[in-house]
Every structure is written in structure tokens, then in C-alpha cells.
Amino acid sequence: MSDLNNGREQWGSRLGFILAAMGSAVGLGNIWRFAYVTGESGGAAFLLIYILCILAIGIPILMAEFTIGRRAQSDVVGSFQEITPGKPWVVAGFLGVASAFIILSFYGVIAGWSLHYFVQYLSGGPAIGAEGGFADYFVAFHTGNFEPLLWQFIFMGITVGIVYVGVKKGIEKSNKILMPLLAILVIVLAGYSLTLGGAQEALDFLFTPDWSQLANPEVYLAALGQAFFSLSLGMGALITYGSYLSKKDKLPGAAVSVAGLDTLFAILAGLMIFPAVFAFGIEPDSGPGLVFITLPGIFDSLGGGMIFGLLFFFLLSAAAVSSGVSLLEVAVAYFMRRFSWSRQKAALIIGFIIFLIGIPSSLGMGALSGVTFFGRDILDSMDFIASNVFLPLGGLLIALFVGWGWKKADALEASDFGDTAVGNGWVIILRFIAPVAIFIIFLSSIGVF
Ligand code: PHE
Ligand code: NA
Q1: What are the transmembrane regions (predicted)?
Q2: Of 8, 71, 111, 305, most Cβ neighbours within 10 A?
Q3: What atom of ligand 1 comes closest to residue 324's alpha carbon?
Q4: Residue 2 lies in a domain
């Protein structure tokens, strides 16, 4: 296209870009992570703060990432260097690359579990229900050492394969069909799950807040972290995707659609999972295994549910692939520019390194289960550092960068807002509201108040 993009690849269309950003956002975060974090954080009060975080912090920062990427036409590190050369803002870029490595390393483990369940359903499924039920099956599988690693490796292989092929053919194409299918399936399953007898309890749990929870600082940090994780925010995935967009496409609508769809997916997933949690008498705070125990129960109680199990875990795995791709792309885009590697070389090498980094997270369920940090196993610790520390910190820097590091008129122009009321409101949020909110949540979670 133009000389501005240094011969970099670009999306085929604006729709392709929006779908890819949606593919990045919608993933294990909406179903696996949303369900267990909501369950552990007490339900409705958490959900309320989560939605406030999306509206007041998430969407404005999402807009900021798209704006930075499209303006700079570079990877997450290069973007800061391009817009403010020689300034320390580039720290946010390096933080983003580090987050990509950490998140994808454990994301691949959970995605591997999902792939395994898909293949179980492909080959008849019943093994999942055998002897002692779904909980026992899950425990036996994920505490085993070899099998989870194998599936993690396969997941990383698929993700590398798509990034290897490239932005337009690889990333854009894979999202167009799978996302709508997943949406339909989640709606159907939520409808069915609500008939299982746990509906009233689930609705109370999700929508009637226990106000005393609002006094618990951990709930705020959990909600903030979940908002960043679920929106793929704070580590440059959306800067990188924005950088493959040509200058003539409009941004604000895209930002709102991505955040809206992601949130809708999470709430629907809650409506699918929690009625079953209560109907089957499972504890909502059972942790990361929650969906792997409840969902097979739903499928089992559905006559002919095998086909649903098969479809569901296929689509969940596919959603995980499109998110994994965006994580890998952050690092690949950086290494391609910085070290002049080919896309192929970067995808293979970095993908393999990330697989290696993920091994301890996987073994932390089995051979390394004795290793814990502040009561968290290895995977949980990686997730905590990335999602509750690195992502909000990255988001804080991104907000400050656009709010203060950039001339206001430039930021307004680059964002397509122009000098409008909404645009000025956006800048005020980035300058004051989002940074202060993130800062206060950080301080309170380490016990300052
Ligand atoms: N948003 C993805 C999900 O919900 C995870 C992700 C986080 C992807 C950060 C990219 C960057 O599953
Ligand atoms: Na998400």
C-alpha cells in the first residue's frame, strides 16, 4: 500500500481486522478464566466491578492501542520508538513482549486441555465420564505429566502454523467462520443449562451482588486483571493488529464492537456454566478446572450430548488458537523487525521457546505440584504476574503515553475522534481516570489502604 508501512503486511479489509481483533479477544479468557475467576471472587460483585473496568478503563485503552498501532505502523516496541523516539515510553513495549511470552506459555497449557477434550469426544467421549465421573477424569488427566505436554505442544504447533502463514491468509481467514459458530453454540448451551434446575441460584450468584465483597481489595484486582486479559489489553496485541490497518479505516466503532462482543461472550458463558455448577452441586470456587468438570456434565445430561461436547471443545480450541495467534504475533512482529528475521523463522523459534517456558506450568499440576508461590501453583503464578501486574501496568503506561506523551491534537487526529466531546472525554479518561483507577487498585491490593 503506502510507503508509510515499510512494506509490512496489511489486513485485507476493515472487517477482517475487526474479526481478527475479536478473535484475539474471545478465547479461553471468556469461558475458562472468566468462569473460574468469577466463581472464586464471589460472583455478582465481581461481575459489576469487571463491567465497570471494561467501560471506564478497558474500552478507552483499547482505543488507545488501536490508535498507536495504526499511527506507528510498527510492532509494540517499534511503535513507541516511532512516535516518541528516544523517550522512555518504549518500556511499555518491552513489557508487552515479555507479557506475550508469559501469557502464551500458560495459555498453551489450558488450550492443550481443551484440545484433549475435543479429541476425547471425537473418539467416543465416554472415557470422560468413566469411573468416578468427570471430576476424577479431569484430575487424572491434568495431573499426568506427559499427555498435557503433548497437547500443549500440538496447540503451539497449530498456533505457529497460522502465524507462519501470515497476517492476511493465516490470521484473518481463520476467524471468519469459527467465531459466529461458537457464539451460536454458547447461546444454545446457555439456554439448555438454564433448564437444569440450578438456574435461580446461578442468576442470584451472577446478578445479585453481595455488597460486603466490595470491601475486599482482591476482588478489584481480580476484576481489573480479568478485564485486561479478556480484552487482550495492555501488552500490545491490539497495537500490533492495529499496525496492519491502513490509515483510512475508522477506529472507534471497531473498539466498541470488540469490547462489546467480548463481554457478551463472557456473560453468556457465565449463563452456560453456573446453572450447571449449582445443578450438579459443584463448588463455584473450584478453580481452573471448573469448566472441564461442569461442561462434560452438561453434555452428558443432554441426550446425544456427545456431538455438543465435540463441537464445543472444537470451537473453544479454535477460539484459543485465534487468541494464541495474537499473542505470538506480538513477539514475532518484534523479532522480525528488530533482528531482520523472516516471519517463518521468528514464528518457529519463538513458538518453540514459548512451549519450553510453558512446561513448568503444565508440570505444576503433576510432578511439580509441590512448587507454589504464595499458595499459587506455577501456572497460577504466571497468570497472576502477567494478568494482574504486567497487563494493568502496561495499560497504565499506554494510557499515560497517549494522554500525556502525545500532543492532544495529534492523539485526537490519530484516533479518528477529532476535536469532539467524545474525543476530549477519551483523553481525560486516559490522562486521569484510568491511570488513577489502576494505581489505586494496585495500591489497595498490596495493602496500602
Ligand atoms: N483475550 C484472550 C482471551 O480472552 C487472551 C489474550 C490475552 C490474548 C492477552 C491476547 C493478549 O482468551
Ligand atoms: Na476474552
Answers
A1: 12-32, 44-68, 89-113, 149-167, 179-199, 219-241, 253-282, 302-335, 347-373, 385-406, 426-448
A2: 111
A3: 8
A4: no
Q: What's the whole-model pTM score?
A: 0.96
Please say whether the beta carbons of 46 and 223 come within 8 A: yes
Q: What's the rounded Cα separation, in Å, for the pair 129 and 347? A: 38
pLDDT (tens digit per residue) in 4-52? 456 789 998 888 899 999 999 999 999 999 999 999 999 999 999 999 9
> For the complex shown, is ipTM > 0.85?
yes
Q: Which domain holds residue 174?
A: 14-445
Domain count, the chain: 1
Alpha carbon of 38 to ligand 2 centroid (Å) = 14
End-to-end CA distance of the chain: 53
340: left (phi over 0), alpha (psi -120 to 50) or beta: left
Q: Which of left, alpha, beta for 86 (phi over 0: left; psi -120 to 50: alpha)? A: left
**Stretch 82-86: mean pLDDT:** 96
Average pLDDT over residues 79-87: 97
Q: How far apart are CA 284 and CA 271, in angstroms?
A: 13
